[in-house]
From TrEMBL:
Domain of life: Eukaryota
Protein name, as recorded: Zinc finger PHD-type domain-containing protein
SMART domains for the chain: PHD (SM00249)
Biological processes, Gene Ontology terms: positive regulation of transcription by RNA polymerase II
GO cellular component: nucleus
Annotated organism of origin: Cannabis sativa (Hemp)
Keyword Zinc-finger: yes
UniProt KW keywords: Metal-binding, Zinc, Zinc-finger
SUPFAM superfamilies per record: Acyl-CoA N-acyltransferases (Nat) (SSF55729), FYVE/PHD zinc finger (SSF57903)
Domain Zinc finger PHD-type: 46-103
Coiled coil ranges: none
GO molecular function terms attached to this record: chromatin binding; histone binding; RNA polymerase II transcription regulatory region sequence-specific DNA binding; zinc ion binding
Length: 327
């Protein structure tokens, strides 16, 4: 990991790699290359094309490493050219995507951020309303159900309030998730898409379900290209448990992933919740060899101590549509 205090001598190398004067080169490189590695042989995935984990420490050349801004896979610049994927003359100054699929996924997710809350079809709302009536729940104030994708990277005053409410729901349902190095609670960092001492959460999105403009359920989502997406944290506020809200939010997330042609969704499950995910949502436990293979392909998935990693194939998108919101 490049750190300001320890690797100041690499400033000239960073500039030689194509960084712009006036911008801190170490900070710029850190945004693309940050990793905490204890055992380089075991933990550094390296270039997905040649499987090599070596990289150039000076200047810009064939062994310079670049990361895709959507799937976060690592590539040697020379390997990209060899495989006719890209012929880079310098590190891109803006975002860079390894393929059209990653570019399309990123573009779709960004459009959803500015679309605002989407009202769910009346058929779904009516089914939820009927369930509430059967349980004797009060719906005198109406029953307007909407879902929305938000991100700390594109945060308006409205979305910042919604992100704050999502943080509150996660804190209501989970103990703080403490980073052992910094001692910071990682839940706000994950929700707002911030990076914390080598923990990269910049690709996180927050999906929320709102009933009558109140956030009742939230889930964190990160899409690693077409292969897999992860759902590291999901929760429903305590006062809204047992009302089917998370099942509804999960169906929205699943339909979005189907529209994006993502194949699988993975998540960490605590032992006491594992049967819910397997029996109710159709997840299965990831085999150890599968998990190792995922990590070798640069999927830096969020895992928590004492949890099992589960996965599920995303159902195929069965209807022709131009937008994931056309449901």
């Amino acid at each position: 990991m490049f750190e300001r205090e320890k690797f100041v001598e690499h400033n000239e190398n960073a500039l030689a790699a194509g960084r712009v004067y006036g911008i801190d080169p170490i900070e710029e490189i850190t945004q693309r290359c940050i990793r905490i590695v204890k055992n380089i042989e075991a933990e550094l995935s390296g270039c997905v094309l040649c499987r090599g984990y070596d990289f150039s420490k000076s200047g810009f050349g064939p062994r310079t490493i670049i990361l895709c801004d959507q799937c976060e896979k690592e590539y040697h610049v020379g390997c990209l050219k060899k495989h006719k994927m890209a012929n880079l003359k310098e590190l891109p100054k803006g975002q860079w995507f390894c393929c059209m699929d990653c570019s399309r996924i990123h573009s779709t997710l960004q459009k959803l951020l500015v679309t605002g809350p989407e009202k769910l079809p009346d058929s779904i709302s009516d089914a939820m309303k009927k369930k509430h009536i059967e349980k004797g729940l009060d719906i005198t104030n109406g029953f307007d159900v909407r879902w929305r994708l938000i991100s700390g990277k594109i945060a308006s005053s409205e979305s910042r309030v919604l992100l704050s409410k999502a943080v509150s729901i996660f804190h209501e349902c989970f103990d703080p998730i403490i980073d052992f190095q910094s001692g910071r609670d990682l839940i706000p960092a994950m929700v707002y898409g911030r990076n914390v001492r080598g923990q990269e959460f910049g690709g996180m999105y927050c999906a929320i379900l709102m009933v009558n403009s109140t956030v009742v359920s939230a889930g964190l989502l990160r899409v690693f290209g077409q292969e897999i997406a992860e759902l590291p944290l999901v929760a429903t506020s305590n006062s809204n448990h047992g009302k089917g809200y998370f099942q509804l939010l999960f169906s929205c997330i699943e339909k979005l992933l189907a529209f994006l042609n993502v194949r699988s969704i993975v998540l960490p499950a605590a032992e006491e919740a594992e049967s819910i995910w397997t029996d109710k949502f159709g997840f299965t436990k990831i085999r150890p060899d599968q998990l190792i293979n995922y990590r070798r392909v640069c999927y830096q998935m969020v895992t928590f101590k004492g949890t099992s990693m589960l996965q599920k194939r995303v159902p195929e998108c069965r209807i022709s549509q131009t937008s994931p919101l056309d449901w």
